[in-house]
Specification:
Length: 445
């Protein structure tokens, strides 16, 4: 079985390959094709993968190419993890937004809109190529903003594109761990959009254990989200929000923390990864050991400004292991082998959330089998959550419309309608600021 990884020179690719090395069952991935526009990054990641596979018998064969059509042709699965504009683009997204006093995070607020406007045209081109060159392939999208990009690709691939994210997995795992439950045996009632969802229940043997957590201040304060949001606010919500909702509920504090930081997250990752790629080919250097050390630093500093604002301290060791690669492997196994499972995924709504239309991509538990991912019916969201979900989905639709039409006015509308952008004039300046630093936005006229 052939897996093509788009963004194959990306830093997190070894996580996916490492997961594949643990899969020894029938119908497993036997060929991995790495595609990237940067040949030097491809060679660097290939060195890491070669060391990963050195002690594994019959490891999936790895090839690397800068030829997109060749990489896609004959693929059974396509894993998309591209970054249009690179980490320099992400740092620019943050810088331009913060200069206007608004959030520049890569998936939330102004930064997420700018990233989406750059990425959607490229993702749509990829979707069209997949439909032509590998019509039977399943696309697993990890490219951010994941929900928006998945929806853009679904207009050309239908239900054969599925978005994944590790945030809901990590959140569910933390809640189950605090409650003394096995995450594998727990049903997580999670619903929303990518990076905009809430856990409303956690059922073990048919019993909802979340009320027990919400009633116990000690338990609430013992894990990441409890530290970020505070026990009182979680009890007020009656749910546990995805960590990215910290940018909404504590926006003023988050923006201030990012403005005061020595470097933005994008600038930190840009500099960190530049050092990694520069050193990975040095004689006598283990590419895998260097990658491991770099990854550990990356994970430990994740959302550091938010945790500092909330006084949450350092991340727990159990939260440093990632998780999206395990979701990707479980998804591939379920489809390729009909190993039925339940995963929280980004899929078309169908009739799951009545407040949104059928084609809107949402993030909910899905039953997955050989025919794909099927969203599970969920209870309606409370009013405050429905309002936020509908508002952000409306912004996503304006981003898609701007990417399709090339309309600068529609792009301004997307920024202006976002809950974290507080002025139409700010929206106009953001569009001009982003066009000035991103050649990829020249299409906006």
């Amino acid at each position: 079985m052939k897996l093509t990884i788009l963004g194959g020179g990306g830093f997190r690719v070894p996580l996916v390959y490492g997961a594949l090395l643990t899969d020894r069952g029938p119908g497993r991935v036997t060929e991995v094709v790495l595609h990237d526009l940067d040949d030097s990054r491809l060679r660097a990641v290939a060195r890491v993968l070669d060391e990963q596979a050195s002690a594994v018998d019959d490891a999936p064969r790895v090839t690397a190419t800068t030829d997109l059509d060749g990489a896609l042709r004959g693929a059974d699965f396509v894993f998309s993890a591209i970054r249009v504009g690179g980490l320099e683009g992400r740092a620019d997204d943050e810088r331009v937004a913060l200069a206007e006093g608004v959030l520049g995070q890569e998936t939330v607020g102004a930064g997420g809109i700018a990233y989406g406007l750059r990425t959607v045209p490229v993702a749509v081109d990829i979707a069209r190529r997949v439909a032509r060159l590998a019509p039977d392939a399943w696309v697993i999208n990890f490219t951010n903003p994941a929900g928006l990009v998945t929806e853009a690709m679904s207009r050309h691939l239908g239900d054969r594109v599925i978005g994944i994210c590790d945030s809901p997995v990590g959140l569910g795992r933390r809640i189950a761990r605090v409650l003394g439950a096995d995450p594998q045996q727990a049903w997580i009632d999670y619903v929303g959009l990518n990076h905009l969802g809430w856990v409303r229940g956690l059922r073990v043997a048919g019993r909802d254990e979340l009320p027990r957590l919400l009633a116990d201040p000690h338990l609430l304060g013992s894990f990441e989200e409890g530290k970020l949001f505070g026990a009182d606010w979680l009890r007020s919500l009656g749910a546990i929000p995805n960590e990215y909702l910290h940018y909404y509920y504590f926006n003023r504090e988050a923006v201030h923390a990012y403005q005061q930081a020595e470097r933005t997250r994008g600038a930190f990752l840009r500099d960190q990864q530049a050092r990694f790629y520069a050193r990975v080919g040095t004689p006598g250097t283990s590419a895998l050991e260097l990658w491991d050390r770099t990854r550990a630093e990356r994970e430990a500093t994740y959302m550091a400004e938010n945790r500092e604002t909330a006084g949450a301290g350092e991340r727990d060791a159990d939260d440093l292991s990632g998780g999206y690669e395990k979701v990707a492997l479980a998804l591939m196994r379920a489809i390729a082998r009909d190993e039925r499972t339940t995963l929280i995924l980004n899929v078309r709504n169908r009739h799951t959330l009545a407040a949104l239309d059928t084609d809107a991509v949402i993030e909910v538990p899905c039953l997955v089998d050989a025919s794909g991912a099927h969203p599970v019916s969920v209870d309606p969201l409370p009013g405050h959550a429905t309002g936020l979900v509908c508002s952000v989905k409306a912004v996503e639709r304006e981003v898609l419309a701007a990417a399709e039409s090339g309309s600068r006015a529609t792009a301004v509308k997307a920024f202006a309608l976002h809950p974290l952008v507080d002025s139409v004039n700010v929206a106009r300046r953001l569009v001009e600021g982003y066009r000035a630093v991103h050649p990829g936005l020249d299409y906006l006229k």
